[in-house]
Design goal:
Blueprint lengths: L4 E3 L3 E3 L5 E3 L5 E3 L9 E2 L5 E2 L23 E5 L7 E5 L5 E8 L5 E5 L5 E6 L7 E4 L5 E2 L5 E2 L8 E4 L5 E5 L12 E4 L8 E4 L2 E4 L11 E4 L2 E4 L1 H4 L2 H21 L12
Length: 263
């Protein structure tokens, strides 16, 4: 066994008093700069004298192939109508979202080259009008299609070559508790994109109730390699649906008239 590998069935102590089981992981790789000196107890348990943290994945159903292939788009502002979305890995701004209020309310999305890839006109209570790229203006509901099934929280769309994709986690009763997940039509178990809402954590785990110790974690959109093939459409559809979710939360009732058309 190499010094930086500990078998998953081992037990570890971070402070000499607490013992943690890591049976859920195949192998724990400790940082290479740490010198691990395991001590064998007579019971057969293995102890190591360093501190570590275990971070859960963003979603237990988010079947990413590997962390390297996952794009993490951070929302610079928690306002999805006016924000930059940047690559967490290198800090590059990949998308800019801007909303004008005069003479009419219009949201525009620009890519890294400064090109407008989408714009939609807010027309509440009428359905919004969206323009994708250089396309023609169409009612939003002709592209993003709601399910006609009662209590169904799914919204579907097609890409340029006719493939179908479905967002789940948006609809009556789900807006406050469920995050959006996007699925391909040929894989209904592993989402290709997943939205993680912003949240706060305590910088001092011993004093979690002290609000002065709270740190804000920015919202992010995680997209795997399959989702990156249609990244513009993933981002545009996410922003539209997040607009609807925010409106529902602020008013306390369904405000899905902005999509209009059912399917």
């Amino acid at each position: 066994m190499r010094p930086t590998e500990i078998p998953s069935e081992a037990y570890f102590s971070g402070s000499g008093t607490a013992v943690y089981s890591l049976g859920c992981a195949p192998t724990l790789h400790a940082p290479s700069e740490l010198q691990i000196l395991p001590r064998i107890h007579k019971s057969g348990d293995v102890f190591a004298s360093y501190f570590f943290h275990i971070h859960p994945p963003p979603s237990p159903r988010f079947g990413m192939s590997s962390p390297v292939s996952t794009l993490s788009l951070i929302l610079e502002s928690d306002n999805p109508y006016n924000t930059n979305m940047y690559d967490e890995k290198d800090g590059r701004i990949l998308y800019q979202v801007m909303t004008e209020h005069q003479p009419e309310k219009v949201t525009r999305v620009r890519n890294v080259d400064g090109e407008t890839i989408a714009s939609w006109h807010w027309r509440d209570p009428k359905p919004d009008i969206i323009i994708l790229g250089n396309g023609n203006p169409v009612p939003l509901g002709t592209w993003l299609k709601k399910s006609i099934m009662p209590f169904k929280d799914a919204v579907t769309f097609q890409d340029q070559i006719g493939r179908h994709f479905k967002w789940k986690g948006w609809g009556t009763g789900t807006a406050a508790s469920t995050s959006l997940e996007l699925y391909c039509e040929d894989d209904k178990k592993h989402p290709i994109a997943h939205f993680v809402k912003s949240y706060s954590i305590s910088s001092n785990q011993l004093d979690a109730w002290n609000t002065s110790n709270q740190q804000w974690v920015q919202a992010r959109l995680l997209v795997d390699r399959r989702g990156q093939e249609i990244l513009d459409l993933v981002v545009i559809s996410f922003l539209v649906l997040e607009k609807g979710r925010r409106a529902e939360l602020s008013t306390g009732h369904r405000t899905d008239s902005f999509m209009g058309t059912h399917t």
